[in-house]
Specification:
292 residues; mainly alpha; 60% helix
């Protein structure tokens, strides 16, 4: 009975509670990035427990010899890549926003007079569109795919795999998701209401906990949706590219509905070319090799 309740309630309670906690901590003098990091690390711990309490695939909880590498890519790929991407956005998007403001008498083009909730919905739609385009490119362009292979490599899906990303991919993710929004003049307040829950959703969408999102799976990129993206089954290839919602996958015809597509029997890459070592994984995209 308790496990059944946990499967249904864990996602909305933890995602909603974690997001709220990040903003509740602001009056304590903690900036949003700091409080989001604290909550995110704590959430990883909770999901780690859920993966063992209600595992989707018990064998995925076994060690795969990549935990140290996954942690390294979390820090070097995801964290450093996001920092570099943000710095680049500050330069190019900041320059565009300043140019637009100068030619619109300071008003810019972002609908700042709209209610905050509507602005946040617009941010969700545009940021997810940027992510869909960038993610789709990583599956279509050979060099970008070689950097994205790292994220797809391995036969296990767990929360820590969410941030197993190459530096190249993470930089481009920031440029595509947030650069256009900053260029349009989107305010920080609206951006943070997307960035925080979206960052907390990553561990959920990759986790090995048997969560039931119910109708939310038709709207959000939950675990059942995203597992299909990692499936080795050719029927599931090039599906479910979005980050937070399934909106753009529906629009562009790349959504695989887990209710009809079924659950993947195996994830990862057939004939996985990814080397075992951390530094070898970093340089792998720059090696010339014949495409399978």
């Amino acid at each position: 009975m308790l496990k059944s309740f946990t499967r249904v309630a864990a996602f909305p309670l933890l995602l909603g509670g974690g997001t709220a906690l990040v903003f509740v901590m602001q009056p304590l003098g903690l900036a949003v990035p700091v409080s989001a990091t604290i909550v995110g690390v704590a959430l990883y711990g909770v999901i780690w427990g859920l993966e063992r309490y209600i595992p989707y695939r018990p064998e995925w909880n076994l060690r795969d010899g990549q935990f140290a590498n996954d942690l390294g890519h979390t820090l070097f790929g995801s964290a450093l890549g996001a920092g570099i991407g943000n710095a680049l956005n500050t330069v190019w998007a900041g320059a565009v926003a300043a140019f637009v403001a100068a030619h619109t008498e300071g008003s810019g083009v972002w609908p700042t007079k709209w209610p905050l909730a509507v602005q946040v919905l617009l941010v969700f739609a545009l940021a997810d569109l940027g992510r869909w385009v960038q993610h789709r490119m990583h599956h279509a362009v050979p060099f970008l795919w070689r950097s994205h292979e790292l994220h797809h490599s391995g036969s296990h899906l767990t929360a820590i795999k969410a941030s197993r990303s190459h530096l190249i991919e993470r930089v481009l993710q920031q440029l595509f998701m947030y650069g256009p929004l900053l260029a349009l003049g989107a305010p920080a307040e609206a951006l943070w209401w997307f960035i925080v829950p979206n960052s907390l959703m990553g561990p959920f969408s990759h986790c090995n906990a048997d969560l039931e999102l119910g109708p939310l799976e038709w709207v959000l990129m939950g675990p059942k949706n995203h597992r299909l993206h990692h499936s080795v089954d050719p029927r599931h290839h090039n599906k479910n590219f979005s980050s937070a919602m399934v909106l753009w996958d529906r629009v562009f015809g790349t959504w695989a509905n887990p209710a009809s597509a079924g659950a993947p029997t195996k994830v990862g890459l057939e004939g996985d070319p990814t080397p075992e070592g951390f530094f070898a994984q970093l340089v792998e995209p720059f090696r010339r090799r014949r495409r399978a």
